[in-house]
Design a protein that fits this description.
Layout lengths: L18 H10 L5 H11 L6 H13 L1 E4 L7 H12 L13 E4 L4 H7 L6 E6 L9 H13 L4 E5 L2 H5 L3 H15 L3 E5 L2 H4 L2 H13 L4 E3 L11 H18 L4 E3 L7 H14 L12 E3 L2 H14 L12
Parallel strand pairs: 1-2, 1-8, 2-3, 3-4, 4-5, 5-6, 6-7
Amino acid sequence: MPTNAPIAADALSDVTSSDNTLRRFLHGLPGVDAVGLEARAASLGTRSIKTTAKAYAIDLAISMVDLTTLEGADTPGKVRALGAKAVLPDPTDRTTPTTAAVCVYPDMVAVAKEAVAGSGVKVASVATAFPAGRAALDVKLADVRDAVAAGADEIDMVIDRGAFLSGRYMKVYDEIVAVREASGAARLKVIFETGELSTYDNIRRASWLGMLAGADFIKTSTGKVAVNATPANTLLMLEAVRDFRAQTGVQVGVKPAGGIRTSKDAIKFLVLVNETAGADWLDNHWFRFGASSLLNDLLMQRQKLATGRYSGPDYVTVD
């Protein structure tokens, strides 16, 4: 499927010089063939995974999970329990991989950091007035700085969808650049809330806008709206990061979030990664699942492959 037209490498350094040049660039990206995109995603989802490959895929998926709690009722105790589960997902089997990260609100970063200390599990924090993003820029940047000061390794920011949908692309770009600077050494994931962007063309434009502004990851969703990660919107974003690296040499990660609940779903997404972006993205440095319930199903399927028995949900902790 065609993605983006060839663009001279030196042109990318000029496309963000003004609102007009950025608009011309984003609207110059080829339109998305929605039928073809969805058919391709559906076709890849039918690939059969055999037992040995399935065991590998399940462990890989576990290692890619950003184990997440983003509720108003979050407590330090819940976050500590989540951190313990991220470090040791299955206490009965210490060969189980750790998850990639725990993802919490900024006020819970210090608690999460202590809970995963010494494990290699990262602490990610949502910021920039998550999930709506409706706040002044100085408030958003203070949110980011608070999370980083508390020890966040990664920042998950939301774009201003109102600005994007009204065509104020430079405003969105400038905010991402400012958050990138405020994040310091923390890796930046830019959330588009694809369910609110309405069209695949907008998702492609948002993907390129985020990457041009310095995103380390582009992320589908907050998990707080009706439509979150889908195979089709994730496939489109994988095409974008593949093409961006081909043209700039810069690799950017992808994080589908929201609605991915089963091992079968996760494996479908891994097939999308392998067949679209390639094996370089089959690593938790470049691909993540934003999830809370997914890990439990991965653990149950892992136990079934190891023992031949399906233990059921009573044998995994409830998050």
